[in-house]
Write a structure and sequence with these properties.
4 copies of one chain form a homotetramer.
Chain A (H helix, E strand, L loop, with lengths): L1 E6 L4 H10 L5 E7 L8 H4 L11 E2 L3 H7 L2 E4 L10 H6 L3 E4 L9 H8 L13 E2 L2 H10 L2 E3 L3 H15 L8 E7 L14 H4 L4 E2 L7 H13 L5 E7 L6 E7 L7 H11 L6 E3 L15 E8 L2 E8 L3 H15 L9
Parallel strand pairs in A: 1-2, 1-4, 2-3, 4-5, 5-7, 6-7, 8-10, 12-13
Antiparallel strand pairs in A: 8-11, 9-10, 11-14, 13-14
Helix pairs in contact in A: 1-11, 6-11, 7-9
Chain lengths: 335, 335, 335, 335
């Protein structure tokens, strides 16, 4: 049994972590942090947790967290995490960061997209990108895991194996993603006010979404070549789920069967990726750590379609999958 | 053609007023106010109005509004309107107030429920409650109309005629209402943040909702007796619509047919109330100024079910209906 | 480890059972039945199960099911189950029936509300109503459990303890319930066609819903007196969840604190009922086996508000809770 | 005042036509047809029409319809309309067909995509494609208008002017569209059963959607060159609205400003197309006949984003716009 702390407990990824960890046989939540005044009970913040966990949100220092936890999940905003990681690692605590701070290998790329100087370039090289389907062995040894973004997970799992197999061109890939509103977080904004976004679909951050370089870096890691994408996220009137429709150009002559078989083979032993023949919907993966993927060849273009629950495989479920790997538990435990 | 101004143009009832008035053959919008900085074009505030109306939101004084308008719709919060009404009336402008400030006849009841001293007790007695089905002739003569609340309209239209006919007891009436989220306004709140209220239903303000005394006053006006209700509003994951299920006790022996016939007779000549046999749903009235009503007799209790679009018959549509009456236009014009 | 079969595997309660049982450490699903042609793989019927369970839907006889299972969940329509139960019980299989066939003790009441002669009056007296909060010890010994309806569970858990404590009158209780659309099942109907029920709320089966006698029977069992209710269900545009707002008359002088304390005391040791101070929303219980309950005293009426996930505590979760009791597993196992 | 009939009155586009025409000052609905037994009153079929129109759905012959109408809207399924058009045209009635039967100029293309031999190749050449922004003058003279599909309207309005101006390549255009569920019609299907499609997004008919050749034909008409697209429609959990995100390759060096200005110029005098700077959402056009369009240049690709209400500009609103043109009414009348 390991002791687990969650930093930034008031948001949706933290709530999802609590939900999952409450049923995890080898992990016990021992600390929750937030800067809310008055140390509110977590069930005041998330009423679905009434009578299921008896912890308050505390405004703790890193040393206090380190004293209580073997593993820390950071659900803090980017830019804040870099001040937490050094003391936690120094105290021999393993860290899984759900923010973007340790995902991009190149701090200049980070600065370009996040408009911030990276606050911990010392530990940045030690961070392992927490996509088990690509980096499983490194994750097992990692002290610091950068948990992938929701869109990058969904896009990379569909496109990665095809790029690796050399079936599609690494440039000019169009990634059109559709996400539920929980992906925008719990902070109040007009765009996520119910009567504004309900019964509506819109694109946002066209050409500027920060997951763009993360997707490119991850796909490049799959295929060993530079990758260039056009990424367009859309807001969909539903709580959870991401569907990613990606359009790429085949390299030479490729059949639809070849696309599916390549995916099938790559994921044959993966516990959480399913290659399907039909066109999957986000509801098929809702509430689970699964990602469903399929591929089509249409008029000389490769279309991949993948879906996941953005809060599970796209965030907290994958974080627990990483925890399982880091601590030697069965990878699917509690998931 | 009359000139119309809308105070507080950034909210949903103002947007609905603009939508309706843009198609009204006898009204022209000449001024929109808000306290937003920089006098934003109304289409920046409500993107659905792009290219349909060329006005900015201005921070105007009452005198400036009066110089530009024959009729003013107040979409301001309660407590603010009372400083606008005296100068507007003095300038001979007719006012339709969508806030609660002039609805309750007794300023002490207002103070009790709104925790505010009434700011304009002088004009309060001149205000006519703008429910045309009850006060049509007074509305025609009114200079100041208090436009009814969304819940009171829906409840009163179902229960009023039955009370008036002496078919139900005026005490112990249970009113269980279900409203779409637009009823909560455009102000950001956690309770109306999409991932909080989507896929969920909850009661709110149980026993304390401010429409309670307004419903009682309106029903008492129908039947000439004191009325006592228990009112429970619920938040429903949809944009628009109110469904009100009310439970009352029959006075003596009453049949279901008698209930329906009483309603049918009362509304025989009404342009916007329809008595139906089936169980109506809010979608039946969505986007229209109609209210659908039916009644059932179940195990010795009278159940009335009524529905409306909270932004139309429950707010802006009824306001335009009142404007039509006040200015001698056909009552249904533009609706 | 027990072997489990699910009859009628194509509907939503069956899917929910599979989801829960896949994570249950002491149960293994060994058979799924349906009358669909061609014995489709269950993942063809429910695509969310791809790669998670490798069983087909088979058109099996009772004897074949009995040979493969220690416990059978019936997710068949009412009227059909009574031909399955006798052979299953005879083969010493324990049965948990999610239909209404064994819920009503009096076959004449069954006939009145379901317009059917009861097909198995011999076993009817042996059936235990599967509400653990009321019948836990009998469930432990039962061979046949009638799993409660979704509405009866939600209503009974709120009202039962107050009736039992003599705090409210057993007659004239008004139960106004709001349910998500999954409660209407997977059969295609115009009323549950997306563009018909989305963005709409309506009442249905007013005065005629078949859960009426079931709620009355359950509440009567709590308090030992005849109970009479008025029950009005409403369809809410969401997938899951029931919120029940019930209005009753206090017996003598009762305070709000007394109401809450009575509930608190009654449920102090219950694993799945939480008495809360705030007004709960269905989302608080979504995806869990919990029921949240609160009470208010408003103008001399008692208002109880309770919520649950209709597919979990209102159906399949409670069914697994019953299975746990029947087989001596910890009551919360897998839930 | 013209007399109008609607064939196939039970579906959503017919309902939308009725709603619009009820407020149209120059059109009167005189006949509604359907093959439903018993000639149900239209308000039994569409309860939102209670008390607003007093017509029954009749099973009429073409001659009976022709005797009652100057203009006929066909809301029948494709393949059926071709038996109605010849007698109606012969009787000098003008026809606006909302099905696909007269949209594709080449009957072989029709046969290829609809798997049907065209039933009226004689009148096919007389049909004018009812996109006023492209064919306004021909529509004015037309006796038979093929009202465009919902997806083709939204895609063509965004891409057409850019193709016409030679700013983008006519081949390899990727069109990723997102539609509300009303686009799938009122026929019951599992994919549009509420609990299946709510809270989910999925692609459908990938590579095979029948609007593909229609979009290509329309875009080719804009630019006078052959056009090839990849079209992927998605089902979004909302009632109404289409958002189309299209990706194309610029021809030579093009700036984002140039793209917007070209659109702005093309639509400068159009009553129903608005070129916006921000990223539009479907809600901005909901319930209106408007289409909002914008363009971006991202990493060397042109992205256009357009939205409309699929039942208004994508069907019935555009049909009324066509009627206005055909009968010499102001183009925006009633819209």
């Amino acid at each position: 049994m390991i002791r687990v702390a969650i930093l930034g407990a008031t948001g949706y990824s933290a709530l999802e972590l609590v939900r999952i960890l409450l049923k995890h046989p080898e992990a016990q939540i021992t600390a929750l942090t937030s800067r809310q005044e008055g140390n509110p009970h977590i069930a005041m913040v998330h009423p679905s947790l009434v009578g299921r966990i008896d912890l308050r949100c505390e405004n703790l220092e890193p040393s206090a967290v380190a004293a209580r936890a073997d593993c820390v999940f950071c659900c803090l905003p980017h830019g804040v995490v870099t001040s937490w990681v050094p003391p936690l690692l120094a105290a021999d605590v393993r860290v899984i960061d759900l923010s973007a701070d340790y995902r991009l290998k190149d701090p200049e790329v980070y600065t370009k997209w996040y408009a911030l100087k990276h606050g911990d370039t010392k530990n940045l090289p030690r961070a392992v990108y927490g996509l088990p389907e690509l980096y499983r062995s490194q994750i097992r040894e990692a002290r610091l895991v950068a948990n992938p973004g929701c869109y990058p997970t969904c896009a990379a799992l569909a496109l990665g194996p095809l790029l690796k197999a050399g079936l599609i061109e690494p440039r000019g890939i169009i990634i059109d993603s559709k996400s539920g509103v929980s992906g925008a977080g719990r902070e109040l904004k007009l765009t996520t006010h119910y009567p504004e976004c309900n019964e509506s679909v819109s694109a946002y951050n066209v050409g500027t979404h920060r997951h763009t370089p993360e997707i490119e870096q991850t796909l490049a890691a799959f295929c060993g070549q530079e990758v260039e994408i056009i990424f367009t996220p859309h807001l969909i009137p539903m709580d959870r789920g991401i569907l990613t429709t990606a359009y790429s150009t085949p390299r030479g002559s490729v059949s639809e069967d070849q696309l599916k078989e390549t995916l099938q083979k790559f994921y044959a032993d993966e516990p959480f990726v399913r290659v399907v023949d039909h066109l999957p919907g986000t509801k098929d993966t809702c509430g689970t750590n699964f990602c469903h993927v399929t591929a089509r060849l249409v008029r000389g273009k490769v279309i991949t379609i993948s879906c996941e629950d953005n809060l599970v495989k796209g965030a907290s479920g994958q974080a627990v999958q990483n925890m399982n790997l880091m601590f030697g538990f069965p990878e699917t435990m509690g998931l």
